[in-house]
Amino acid sequence: MTPDEAIAALAGSFDEVEPLVGGTWQKLDDPAPRACEQPGGQPGIRFNAYRFSEEPVADRQHAFDLVSAHWHSLGYALTSREETVAAPILRLFATTPDGRNLQFSAADAALTLEGLSACVTDPAA
C-alpha cells in the first residue's frame, strides 16, 4: 500500500460513516505523516484524520449502533466503552485488517471520528 492509498483508505472509512449517522461534518484530516513501525520492525509512516459534527444528536445509541453494525459487517475488530465526563459518551474502536485504527464517539451534543491509517513504507526513506 502506498501513502496515498493509506490516506484514501482512512478517508473512505469515515466517508462511509458520515451519511449513516447524518449531520454536517467538519474535516480536519492531517496530511502530515507520523512515524510508525511496520511488521518486522521496519520504519514507516501513517496519517491521522479527525472529523466532527456539532449538531445535537437525537439518539446517540442509535448512531453508535449504526456505525458498530457497519464496521462489524466489514470484518473490523471492535471494542467499545461508555464514559461519563461532563456527559455520557459512547466510544467505538475498530481495527481494520490492513491496520487502520478507527474511533467513533457519540455524545448528545456531538459526533466524532478519529483514526490512524495503516503503517506504510516511507518513500522518502
Which features does this protein show?
125 residues; elongated; 7 strands; 2 helices; TBP-like; single chain
Element layout with pairings:
Blueprint: H1 3-21, E1 26-27, E2 30-37, E3 43-53, H2 60-73, E4 77-84, E5 88-95, E6 101-107, E7 111-116
Explain what this protein looks like in three dimensions.
The chain has 125 residues and is of the alpha+beta class. The protein has a single domain (3-116), classed as TBP-like. Helix content is 26%, strand content 40%. It has two helices and seven strands, in the order αβββαββββ. The chain has helices at residues 3-21, 60-73, and strands at residues 26-27, 30-37, 43-53, 77-84, 88-95, 101-107, 111-116. It starts with a helix and ends in a 9-residue tail after the last strand.
